Amino acid sequence: MIYYADTDVCQHHLTQIGQDFTRDFESFVHAPGPKSAVFHVPFPWEGGYGDLFVGRLERIYDGCEQIVVICSELHNRTYGFIRQWDRPKMVYFLCGYLNRRPEHSRVYTWMDWLSRTRDFYKRNLQVLDELDSYAVKPKTFDILLGQPRTHRDMVYSHAVQTNWQDRNIITYMRDFSQGLYDHDFNDVSFQQRPITEWMWDGVAAPKDPLHFTIEPVEFHGEQISLSQVIPVSIYNQTAYTVVAETNFMNSYSFFTEKIVKPILAKRLFVVFSGQHYLRNLHNAGFKTFGDIIDESYDEEPDITKRYAMIFEQMQYLMYESQEKIIEEIKHVTEYNYSHMMSHDWMGEYFRVLQAVLLDHTACHY
To answer: Rounded CA gap, 106 and 212, in Å?
Structure first.
């Protein structure tokens, strides 16, 4: 069996399981005998990267025994590609879950954002030691919405219309004089933004301008994405977290660093994302807060109704005793922290990847 690794990430993963491979695409295409390939979904998809990726798959599909595709980013383009390439030879590893599984291809998990974010804080426990997780706080929620998305517009508009600014910490990088997707984030750096849009918390503003939360910053001597930095001082002023996930479609759940941070900080959270996000979080081994608040919002398919149900729970928490709620959540938050810190997602992924590759190899011996 000849294996092809399409990117540095694919090469690293095959190396980790002790599998020989080639990076020479043309020699792989023309090589005789049984062949398998490992690809990494490009991000961004735009700019010709997605077309190049699909073009390579089309060239090798008929000549391959199987094609493994790993997805560290799960977006609408990714989901559409998986639906279009629902074929028997395809095997997908996703950073999340599909709510409608493919009919022909196989799907497994690769919790890349969870494991990478968690691993940084395992190496830097002193950051978590700065958190006062179970103290009563002066404010209720952190509502840190980041860069514009449709569902974040809905959260921000409701928070402003109901005058929640005094009871919560709210930031959003949104110019409402522009259309949702008309912002050019290269025009204004994070260093130039007012505190209503972005707060530097836990990490000093670097000298070089930053324009996107995925960009790296130095934090405790390491390079991590700005979005992975736990906002310690904001968490120590607020009791609970609003997780406005990257995506909000009902078709899939994409787990990012946004859910890791409140779990590591031992906080109650509500999630603005797609239907079944909490159910899929349970599938990943976590617990949520259904015995404390009404989490039936997770089952509601209509986004407007679903978010209205979450707003009701937020309103309840704003006026309920923090001391009471904090005591009630401890059995969940302590469990989640332990599960996040101890679960071997990468080891699990490598074992399944190796089994998938070896299982297919075995039929040729």
So the answer is: 33
CB under 8 Å to 251, separation ≥6 — which residues? 79, 98, 99, 100, 274
Q: Which fold has domain 2-110?
A: Rossmann fold (3.40.50)
Domain ranges of the chain: 2-110, 115-342
Are 253 and 274 a contacting pair, CB within 8 Å?
A: yes
Mind listing the pLDDT tens digit of every residue in the chain (365 residues)?
999 999 999 999 999 999 999 999 999 999 999 999 999 999 889 899 999 999 999 999 999 999 999 999 999 999 999 999 999 999 999 999 999 999 999 999 999 999 999 999 999 999 999 999 999 999 999 999 999 999 999 999 999 999 999 999 999 998 887 787 767 777 888 888 888 888 888 787 888 888 888 899 999 999 999 999 999 999 999 999 999 999 999 999 999 999 999 999 999 999 999 999 999 999 999 999 999 999 999 999 999 999 999 999 999 999 999 999 999 999 999 999 999 999 999 999 999 999 999 875 433 32
Residue partners of 318: CB distance under 8 A and separation at least 6 = 140, 141, 164, 167, 168
| Coil/strand/helix, residue 248 | coil
Burial of 9 (0-12, 13-18, 19+ CB in 10 A): middle
